[in-house]
Specification:
The protein has 324 residues and is of the alpha/beta class. The chain is built from eleven helices and 15 strands. Strands 3, 4, 5, 6, 7, 14 and 15 form a seven-stranded mixed β-sheet that branches. It has a six-stranded parallel β-sheet with strand order 10-9-8-11-12-13, sandwiched between helices. The mean pLDDT is 93.
């Protein structure tokens, strides 16, 4: 089968579109014919091996342990392993697994679910990683409540575009922060207010919950936007250099949190089966729709990752794997 494979860390140019062995499902697993795969910031980090802290956490010191990139996917079940009863061959599914940038991928059965009928394969492939991160940030860590004022920084990004919709679905009044070119998208996502950070100060108002998905603002700036008892959720970071990758903001927040009235939290998200089901229900109810920026052919995965990392994407970037 064709796949996007890397043998060493480096810029996205290290990714190769080449033939590799087709996987087989084991017990509790399913083999999926991938139709589309989502691109997220984590793919860039796994490709480059940065921050270096990530290598120490088990992803491979000298090179990636998993040579095929990609997590999010949508496709059709081709084969099921022993003990799998939730899905059958021929079912259209979406979810996450290691090695989704390929014509075939093996996923744990509990990390796949029926593809919502209202979504295309490309839309469904954009859901779990970014949507699950947003769900954990807004609902689980942020503890959003109806009527609260919520600020989403990076509202046009992959995680941010889900966070805006989720905060709305949970009854909050949402303000989205983005660049000039992306304000229309953020309005279509349901934000009542949009702040163009190139022209306005996002901290001119105070919010009950601030979700920072952009990773570039100082802890001091973020706290200025909070009410005295407000909650800050820091989702990742991109300004911490090659070693820490922005995690120092989370560490400072944890150290400061016991001494202030505000809740200052960092999020290290995980792909969870329960989130997949919750997101599917929200999608089926019409409360959540993935916002797609553009779709690239599988062979152009390096260009897709570069486009995303450059900050040009408005919404999610997707790879088309199975084409008509």
């Amino acid at each position: 089968m064709k796949a996007i494979v890397q043998d060493r860390y480096g810029s996205p140019d290290v990714l190769e579109f080449r033939d590799t062995g087709r996987p087989s499902p084991g017990g509790g697993e399913v083999l999926v014919r991938v139709h589309a795969a989502g691109v997220d910031a984590g793919v860039w980090h796994l490709t480059t091996g940065q921050p270096y802290l990530m290598r120490l956490l088990g992803f491979g010191l000298r090179g990636p342990k998993q040579p095929v990139r990609g997590l999010d996917f949508a496709g059709t079940v081709e084969e099921v392993g022993d003990g799998v009863t939730r899905v059958r061959p021929g079912d259209e599914v979406f979810g996450a697994c290691e090695g989704a940038f390929a014509e075939h991928a093996v996923a744990k059965a509990d990390l796949v679910a029926a593809k919502p009928a209202r979504l295309s394969f490309e839309q469904a492939a954009a859901v779990l990683v970014s949507g699950g991160t947003a769900l954990q940030a807004v609902r689980d860590v942020g503890r959003v409540q109806p009527g609260q004022r919520v600020l989403v920084i990076g509202a046009a990004g992959g995680v941010g575009s889900f966070a805006v919709q989720l905060a709305k679905a949970f009854g909050a009044e949402v303000t989205g922060v983005c660049s000039t070119a992306k304000t229309d998208l953020v309005r279509t996502l349901g934000a009542e207010h949009v702040v163009d950070y190139t022209r306005e100060d996002f901290a001119a108002q105070r919010y009950d919950l601030v979700v920072d998905t952009a990773g570039l603002r100082s802890l001091t700036d973020l706290r200025r936007a909070l009410t005295p008892r407000g909650t800050l959720v820091i989702v990742g970071g991109e300004n911490g250099g090659k070693w820490l990758g922005g995690i120092q903001r989370v560490l400072r927040a944890a150290l400061l949190n016991p001494f202030v009235g505000q809740r200052l939290c960092g999020l290290v998200s995980r792909v969870r089966a329960a989130d997949l089901e919750d997101l599917r229900e929200l999608i089926e109810a019409g409360k959540l729709t993935p916002a797609l920026d553009r779709t690239y052919p599988l062979a152009d995965a390096a260009a897709a990752i570069g486009h995303l990392h450059a900050g040009r994407a408005a919404g999610k970037v997707v790879l088309a794997v199975l084409t008509a």
